[in-house]
Amino acid sequence: MRIAIIGGGISGLTLAWYLQKGGVAYDLYEADNRPGGNLRSLSRPEGYLLEAGPNSLQLSQELEELLADLGLTDQIQDSAAVSKHRYVLRGGRYRQLPGSPPSLLTNGFFSLKAKWNLLQELRQPAAPTDATETVAQFFRRRFGPEIVDYAVNPFMAGIYAGDPEKLLLHKTFPLAALEQQYGSVLRGLAKTGKGAPRRRIVTLKSGVQTLTDTLAARLTNYHSNTPVENVTRLADGSYQLQLNSSAQPAAHYTHLALALPAFAAANLLQGLFPQAAAALAAVHYPPMSVVFSAYDRAAVTHSLNGFGALHPKVEGTYAAGSIWTSAIYPQRVPAGQVLFTTFVGGAQYEAAATQPEDVQKAAVHAELSRFYGIAGGPRWQERYLWPRSIPQYDERIVAAHAAADSLESANILAVANWRAGVSVPDCIRHARKVAEGLAAGQ
């Protein structure tokens, strides 16, 4: 058994790490000169540390064990205590979102009608399971429109860069199972979540890219700057790769592991499995710009006592929201300054994501000034553009997942975030599971 892993993001690197630990032969090919994929940490003068990809990580068991394996436990840095406070724009001002089901009823964020709908959810009968039901349809049916507009919508934009009117419930949240089993989502959450500890929200002191840099450095068969140009299937069912770094094909492989965006995997599979390739090519990746804006603390009147603020689509804003980086990780910003990490784009704001950089920076500054009471201009701004950001778990992902299932019979395994889930812990969990399965089958 020999595995060819194509793609050196967190999924491919994790898969290679656990194959290496399990004694399985592999080669990992990464087209870029740096590992990490969507994990991208940027050091800037004056002591700023920016994250163009994930800003924080939920410390799952698998992530914690991987960090320990790599000797990175001492790099774990918890977010500041204020990070438990989350804000949502409502009526043109930021208001703290209730942090628990009981506080939904006591907090003044939602109207009396919305609170009544929450209580009524306990009495609603369960509806038949519908695999086509979107997140918005489900929450609107169970809880009413206000919860969708001011809780579900900004949350889905913040986590998935997505539109809850299009994202499928069964591909994003297992709430339909609670409805079926307990007759009520709230009742199910109360019974299944009782006493469950909330995961720590952490980063790594030198940036989240430290994780992927360290993984790549520990791998014996990691090949950077090595794009795979073509894949050939031989008569015995094995695979041969054509690399641009050599006129000679690479070694034969019994398995291919595609740790690539769906569209990139589709390009490689087009000649061998055209139907599967078409399904993967259809997966939607909306553009997203990350705009960093630094100000003197004295110029910002808002208290910034939280993780950040999200913007519901109904508020008609330019950006999807901002993380208050200097509040949750003060060590990443010079004393006396604040840093906003603002997200422009995603499935609900695609037109703004592709505007010129100077237009985006000016619009972000204007919006920050309006909502945070900022006097004067920024000390500096910087933009990082993801032309294709987060894969959307909408109706198109169903065919892609079915294609991934069918490819497994040909020893082709998908280990990317369009398959595993969009979070870093999801990717680590899935890649480790695939590696352990391959090692067990040697």
From TrEMBL:
TM annotation in the entry: none
Family matches, as InterPro entries: Amino_oxidase, FAD/NAD-bd_sf, Protoporphyrinogen_oxidase, Zeta_carotene_desat/Oxidored
Subcellular location: Cytoplasm
Catalytic activity as recorded in UniProt: coproporphyrinogen III + 3 O2 = coproporphyrin III + 3 H2O2
Gene3D superfamilies membership: FAD/NAD(P)-binding domain (3.50.50.60), protoporphyrinogen ix oxidase, domain 3 (1.10.3110.10), Protoporphyrinogen oxidase, mitochondrial, domain 2 (3.90.660.20)
MF-aspect GO terms: oxygen-dependent protoporphyrinogen oxidase activity
Cofactor requirement: FAD
UniProt EC number: 1.3.3.15
Principal cellular location given in the protein's record: cytoplasm
Function statement: Involved in coproporphyrin-dependent heme b biosynthesis. Catalyzes the oxidation of coproporphyrinogen III to coproporphyrin III.
Name the UniProt record assigns to this protein: Coproporphyrinogen III oxidase
Taxonomic lineage from the root: Bacteria, Pseudomonadati, Bacteroidota, Cytophagia, Cytophagales
